[in-house]
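Lecture 7 notes: from sequence to structure.
We start with the chain below.
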Amino acid sequence: MKLEFLLCGSPTDGFFSQMAFFRLCLDALGGDEARARLVCTFGDHTVEDIPARWQPYFERIEVHWAHAPGAPNPAHMHQHEMRFDLLDPTADLSVLCDADVAVLAPVGPMARELLAEQALGGVIAHFHFPWEGREKDALRDWPEIARAVLGRDIATPYRYTLVPQEDPPEAPFYINYGMFAGPPAQLAAFHAHDLQLRPRVAAQLGDWWAPQVSLALTCIDLGLPVRALPMRWNFPNDPIADRMYPQELEHVVFLHYLRGQAFRRDRVFADAQAFARFLDRPVEGSNAVFQRAVARITGGRYPFPG
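Predicted structure tokens for the same chain:
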């Protein structure tokens, strides 16, 4: 299977280290993952250059610069958008990931499911989005923004993933953008329409939350097949998720290390001392899953010496 993974970020030690570790994860899995294309797009830069310290670890990472050096880049969107422009139409499956995601197991089961349905997949977001000046009320907000943007009502068949699961379904296919996957042709069709729809969403919500909300509305407007995936496909290092999804925790594929209680995500792979402190620290749940995986992949040694 021909896989590709597309990440984006800014040219900082934190992002360089996360992307280099992502490559290590793929290589440690072997097979299709080790052969996978890894693309990193950078914005917010003043020079188009990978620092000498990180160059040895980017030999198997395809790097692109998303705008002219020093150009404005509101909400860091240029590097995000560029990933869609770089999709390989010959790939079987394309996966857009946040940089602070680690791949701990093969993605074949997800790939086969999405390819069989020619569907886009992701894990439903943890919580409802904020709308400035309002209290969070998904059962009111989704119909209102759908009518404003699409001119019609929409179905909301999904539950947010970190709210009590006895709560009623109250969301469409509103996913955490940390992992968004599908056949490249479907992702390209999504993106072309999303670019048209998103300004109307931003007019309601502002620029920060517009891409994530627009994702849901674009899929609905195009009638794209979608698949809400189990938590293992974008598991956060969050104690609430640990308690709510113990069975998924035993089978994590994408570990999203976005929480900062046990370590700083921007330092854990950028600094040898921070790396050693994390491996020595007593941790539980998803942080322990991540800690064991890091120790296995690196042999317990800091992988990026200067």
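Points to note: The longest strand covers residues 3-9. The mean pLDDT is 97.
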